[in-house]
Amino acid sequence: MSEWWTYGLADFLLFSPRTYARLFALYNEALWPAQPLVALGWLALFAALWRKARWAPPAVLLALALAWGWVAWAFHLQRYATINWAAPWFAAAFGAQALLLALAARGVRRAEPVPAVAWWLLGAGGLGLPLLGPALGQPWIETEGFGLTPDATVLGSLGVLRMFVPAYRLVWRIWWLVPLSWSIVGSLTLWALGEPLRALLLPLASILVAIAHWQCRYKCAH
Amino acid sequence: MLERARRRFLLGLAAWPAAGRALAAAPAAPAMGLLAKPIPSTGETIPAVGLGSWITFNVGDDAQARENCTAVMRAFFESGGRVVDSSPMYGSSQAVIGHALARLGAAARPFSADKVWTGSGARGPAQIEASRRHWGVARFDLLQVHNLLAWEEHLPTLLEMKAAGRVRYVGITTSEGRRHAEIERVMRSQPVDFVQVTYNPLDREVEQRILPLAQERGIAVLANRPFREGALLRVLQGRPLPAWAGELGVDGWAQLVLKFIVSHPAVTCAIPATSQVAHVRQNLGAARGAMPDAAARARIAAHLGSL
C-alpha cells in the first residue's frame, strides 16, 4: 500500500465531533446515577492508598481490573463499536488489561517511595479530567468519568500502576502496554476531533510516568 | 447567455457518443427540474447530485441523530434526489440509511450505491450480503470496490453478480487523487460501469486523464469529496460570492462548487454528504437551472484557486 503516506489523521476519523460527544452524553444518561457512586469509590480508593492500608494494593488493583473490564464491555463494545469498527479491538485490549490486573493483584505491594506524580495522575483521572470538560464549556452530561470511560480510567491507572510493584517483574513491564497504547490512540482521536488541549493530556501523563520511572529506577524497590 | 450555455451543454452531452446512445435510449426527463445525466453503459439517467454518507450518517444507535438522518434523506428524495452512496467502512452509516429507508417506505426511491471493502476476496460476498441487509434493499444498484482494495479479487465477484442480476452496475473508487494510474488501468482493462473519484474546483487532477478516459470508455463518474469534507466551504464561509456567480442562479458557494462539478461532461453525479436538511435541499438545488459553460467553469476554478 504505497499510498499510505498520502493519508492524514482526519482520514481515519469515522465520526463527527458531535457524534462523539453524543456518545458520551447517551452513555452517561444510561448510567446515571452510577457516576457519583463510582466517584465515591474512587475517593475511597484514593484514601486507602493515602493511608497506606495494608489491604489496599490488592484491593485497589482488583477494583482497577473491574473498571477496565467495565470500560471494555460497556463503553467500547456496547457503545463505541456502534460508530467505530476498531472498537472491538479496543475492547479486547481493555479486557486483557483487566485480566492482567486481576491476576497481578495477588502478591502486589506498594512501591517505595511513591513519586508525587503518581498521586497527581490518580487525582487527574478521578477529578481533573472529569472537571476539565465542563471547565472548557462541555456540558456535564458529556463528562468523562474514572472507571467508566477510557481516557479518565487510563489517566488514573497510570498513577496507580506507578504506585505498585507486582510479584513478577515481567508483569510490571507488560501492564504499561495497553495504557500507553491507549494514550496514543485516545490522543490521536481527540486531536483529529479538533480538541488539542485534551489530546495532549494522556501523552503528557505518559511522559511524566516515564520521567518518574527514570528518576527512581535505581532507588525504587522493583 | 446562460440558457445558451445550458443548451450547448446538453447538446454536448448528446454529441458525446456514449451519452448520445444514452439519450436516445432513455431521454433525460429530469425529475423536478433536476439535471439528470445518463449512465453510459445503459442510458439510464440519474440526478446529477446525490448523497454521500461518510461521517455524517455514522451516528450509531443515537435515536435522535438517526431521526435527523431520516429527515435529511426525506428532504433528499422530496427534492428529486436518488443516488445514495455508502460503504462498510463508514461505521454505522449503512444501518442508518437502512433505518431511514424503512421509515420513508415508498417515499424513497434510492439508486443504492455501496462498496465492498475487505482485503480478502473470499470475505467479499458475506460483506456485501451484510451491507444489503443493513440497507434493507432487494439488491444494490451499484457495487464498487472501495479504494481499489483487493480489486483483482472482488471485481470478478461483482461482475458475476451483475451477470446473475444481483447487482445492476459495477464500479471502482478512489479518493483524494490516490492510485490514479491503477484506476486508469482498471478502466482500460475491466468492464466497469462506474468510477468514483475526487473532483472539485481545487482537486482537478482527474481532468487530465481519468475524466477523458471515462468519456472515451463510456464509464459513469461519481465525484466524491466535492467540498473536501466541508473544509472548502469553511474557507469560503463569510466571503462574498463573485458578482458573476449570480448569473448561474446560485444561492451560495456550495451550489457554485456543485455546478462546477456536475457541469463537466464526463461527470455523472456528485455525492456531497451532509447532516442538515437545509444543506441537502441546497445541494439538490445546484442541479437546477443554468449550468456553467467551459469559460464559466474555468472562471470558477481560477477564482476558488486564488482564494
SSE layout and pairing:
The complex is a heterodimer of chains A (222) and B (307).
Chain A: H1 17-31, H2 34-50, H3 56-77, H4 87-104, E1 109-110, H5 116-135, H6 150-163, E2 164-165, H7 169-174, H8 177-192, H9 196-216
Antiparallel strand pairs in A: 1-2
Helix pairs in contact in A: 3-4, 3-6, 5-6, 5-9, 6-8, 6-9, 8-9
Chain B: H1 2-15, H2 17-25, E1 36-38, E2 45-47, H3 63-78, E3 83-85, H4 93-104, E4 111-116, H5 124-135, E5 140-145, H6 151-163, E6 167-173, H7 180-189, E7 194-198, H8 210-217, E8 220-224, H9 231-236, H10 253-262, E9 269-270, H11 277-285, H12 294-306
Parallel strand pairs in B: 3-4, 4-5, 5-6, 6-7, 7-8, 8-9
Antiparallel strand pairs in B: 1-2
Helix pairs in contact in B: 3-4, 3-11, 4-5, 7-8
Describe this structure in words.
- The complex is a heterodimer of chains A (222) and B (307).
- Chain A has 222 residues and is mainly α.
- Chain A has one domain (29-216).
- Chain A has nine helices and two strands.
- Chain A has helices spanning 17-31, 34-50, 56-77, 87-104, 116-135, 150-163, 169-174, 177-192, 196-216, and strands at 109-110, 164-165.
- Chain A has a two-stranded antiparallel ribbon with strand order 1-2.
- The mean pLDDT of chain A is 91.
- By secondary structure, chain B is of the alpha/beta class.
- Chain B has a single domain, classed as TIM Barrel, CATH 3.20.20.100.
- Chain B is built from twelve helices and nine strands.
- Chain B has helices at 2-15, 17-25, 63-78, 93-104, 124-135, 151-163, 180-189, 210-217, 231-236, 253-262, 277-285, 294-306; strands at residues 36-38, 45-47, 83-85, 111-116, 140-145, 167-173, 194-198, 220-224, 269-270.
- In chain B, α4 (93-104) packs parallel to α5.
